[in-house]
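On clarity, I found the account of how folds are encoded harder to follow than it need be. What matters is that the chain and its backbone geometry are given together, residue for residue. I therefore recommend that a typical entry be quoted early in the introduction. An entry of this sort, consisting of the sequence and the corresponding backbone structure tokens, reads as follows:
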Amino acid sequence: MRKFNILFLLVLAITLTSCSIRLVDFTTISSKNVSLDIDKTKGIQVEASKSYFLSIGWNIKDALDEALESAGPEYDLLVDGVVRYSSYPFISSVKVEGTAVNSRDIKMVYGQEGYEQWLNDNDIFDPETATVEVVDN
């Protein structure tokens, strides 16, 4: 009976434990179709994946950074993207696909004032005016 109690406590402890993993840092993200009025013909189709043993340290950011870096240093925005997570025994992987574009091209098309209006019209996050809300758990 004592072995059963120890086994029960061990199973209970494992099922009640959890962990938290930061998946991605982002500037702009949406799961809806949004017309950003960007000339995607100047963009480059990119794809990158990152694999992790035992899912240790997996995150989306590594694959996203790799995809943008494969396009070149002038590309800093991924549009029309897809993120896929795959899990196999002992291995997990994250794959990112999309069109890499240069956000500076948007500024050149619209000018500074037009670019700021474009940001405002599309509800793009502005770090200069962002506020932080602290929530106690």
Q: What stands out?
A: The mean pLDDT is 76. The longest helix spans residues 103-121. Strands lie at 44-53, 77-88, 91-101.
